[in-house]
Amino acid sequence: MQSIPVDTARLGVLRCANAPEVKFSNSETQEVKKDRDGNPVYSVAVTVRPDGRRISVIEIAVSGEPKGLEAGQVVKVTGLTAFVWSMGDRSGVSFRADTITPAHGSAAQGKGGDA
Fold first, then answer.
1. What share of the chain is helix, strand, coil (3-state, %, to 5)?
2. Which of 4, 35, 42, 102 is the most exposed place for a label (fewest CB within 10 A)?
3. Which domain of life does the protein's organism represent (predicted)?
């Protein structure tokens, strides 16, 4: 899987589209997806609008529960990386970040704002 660092400054204003949701590795058994260190992985939908273009929503995975995020809130995304993937006849781009925190105010620091 090829990883591509993303310059978040070029994405315009980043806004949280929904509250963080835990990711499941198996939706039938509701088994929570874990990172290499055993931390739960969360997904946060973030809206981006680069240079006044059309607004897009990207789902960003982050280790540990991001704290203090609410829908519509401007957020700071640190260490954003895109991963190009392919599975059979399907392909796409996934996003992962080191942290997602509220852009203003005091938020917990660390992985996902939690560790």
1. 10, 50, 45
2. 4
3. Bacteria
